[in-house]
Amino acid sequence: MARPLIRRAGGALVLVALLGTLVVRDQLAATPPWIAAAALLPPLGFAGLVLLLDRRTRESWAPLCAAFLWGAAVAAPVASLVNDVLLATRGLGDAVPTVLGPAVEEIAKASALLVVLAVWRGEIDDPLDGIVYGALAGLGFAATENVGYYVLAALQGGVPGLGRALWLRGLLQGLNHAAFTAATGAAVGWAYGRRSRRPARAAIVLAGIGLSSLVHAVWNAVASETITQILCGAPSPGAACTPSPAPLDLLVTVPILVVTFVGPLVVTLLAIATRAGRVP
Asked: What's the gap between Cα 202 and its chain centre?
């Protein structure tokens, strides 16, 4: 009797601490309400879709909220700080966007899964659970990360610039972080659902983090760079970018690229969820 009460109290303390951290952070406190809403609402909408994957099982709301909040309040600022340090380190700066940065971010987001495992034991016991919790952590991470991008977009391009940033990062690429970390979550759920021994369990989890980091790195190095060049619309290499992207690129070319790169991972994760036997 005492043990469940202790676990509930511990879970409540985790949620309160995460909410407090999110509220008092200077970045969010100084963010205009409309930009904060732009950063938060799309991830919350995607979170609702993610929860539909596991609609046949009634999951506890506390660990679900904790995964999202951990991604937003802990994983995102920690990853940003580590990446800044790496960028300032001689000889490492060039490798941060395409190699080190993705690994740092995926490890930071994966820590949300470890928190859920530690505080709410038994909540992640199959790949589908892991996919849901990993995706929620990724969505929370994206919400905080996008605040900085939206502020910059509004300062540089006004309302049209903010609208383009919301379309690109909030909607078209809104599931990127979720999909990357859901791959780690699938590995965590498989490892803990199999009741594997600790060495095997750790190897499976590390493999999941490695896979998510690899996919994230490929996205940064290839897809993201290609999208940047397309939206820039420079008439020749080294020339200045056009004042605004071509509508055809915004509405057709970039969406096709996003689906091409992220779509296979999303389809694979949905197939894993279907195999779990809970998604019709």
From this structure: 22
Least confident span in 44-48, 118-122, 194-198, 240-244: 194-198
The residue ranges of every structural domain in the chain are 30-224+245-275
Residue with tokens 């820590």: 111
Contact between 100 and 86 under an 8 Å Cβ cutoff? The reply is yes
- Residue that has been written with the tokens 């511990």 in this structure: 10
**Roughly what angle, to the nearest 10 degrees, separates helices 101-119 and 176-193?**
50
Instruction: Spell out the residues 6+ positions from residue 120 whose beta carbon is closer than 8 angstroms to its own.
Output: 7, 11, 60, 62, 63, 66
**Closest-CA residue to 182 (of 272, 80, 69):** 272
State the Cα–Cα distance between residues 137 and 142, nearest whole angstrom. Answer: 9
Q: What pLDDT digit, counting tens, does each position of 96-149 carry?
A: 888 999 999 999 999 999 999 988 888 898 899 999 999 999 999 999 999 989
Cα three-residue angle 174-175-177, rounded to 5 degrees:
100
Q: Whole-model pTM?
A: 0.89
d(CA 233, CA 63): 44
Secondary structure (3-state) at 200: helix
188 closest CA partner among 262, 119, 131 = 131
